[in-house]
């Protein structure tokens, strides 16, 4: 009898290991395939800093013990005779590091701000052989950058701090707001609420809808294993608990972070909060939503996260020497910042 009980116990443990470990191993493989390799901003979409003669750039490395050191860039006007209105801390999106945002950064600097941006884990200069590992790593990066800024505020002339993020960077900054009450305003472009929503879609593409239903809980478990302190934090959590004036900008035709991943959730959960403004445009897309209409049309074939499609579109593409930031669209951003900083 004892022998049978022992056998049943062993069989039960083996079944438990299969039920728990097998899906986790599969999810690990999916994450490795998706996020395990270094990411370089496509040349067709990158604007090197030296193409902007009116920008002064100071580069430094934020050293970390348990994560990749972050390459960080402080942008100021080449003519620094005018005092800046605020320091904007910009979190880039997935697949495009700081050089993707140089036209936007230049616009913000010429509008009277200093801008601190960085190459996130796994991207461009910050990248190492392991990529960035998980969506929640972006929030770890944003949290660390904001901690650096607030702990060294005097190095940034004690300027008012504005958090800004786009897409993955919007999620990363939005979730981090709760931990940084020193921030005076936040602007989130095309943010998604939480990584599980995106990975649910990825699971259906890779494994089919039936098996994806089984995998979904394991994506959350895997994110928690990777970054337990940040994995469960959502943008709704961060914005709600921070009570920091926050402008959230989206577009109905967003092909990447569409309504069910983002603004549908935010309108339901956040629109009643006095410190939140949510604006949903009709046709600004995702990756280039702050560009002029003409430039959005030029780059429209690249408005995807499909790396193979981006590579195919890059073949023979002549990148414009400059792009125009949509001043009418960005006016609402500038006005919002000015109304909420001291």
Automatic annotation (TrEMBL):
Keywords: Hydrolase
GO molecular function: carboxylic ester hydrolase activity
Provenance organism: Aliicoccus persicus
InterPro entries linked: AB_hydrolase_fold (IPR029058), FrsA_esterase (IPR050261), Hydrolase_4 (IPR022742)
Domain Serine aminopeptidase S33 as annotated: residue spans: 83-197
Protein name: Alpha/beta hydrolase
Keyword Hydrolase among record annotations: yes
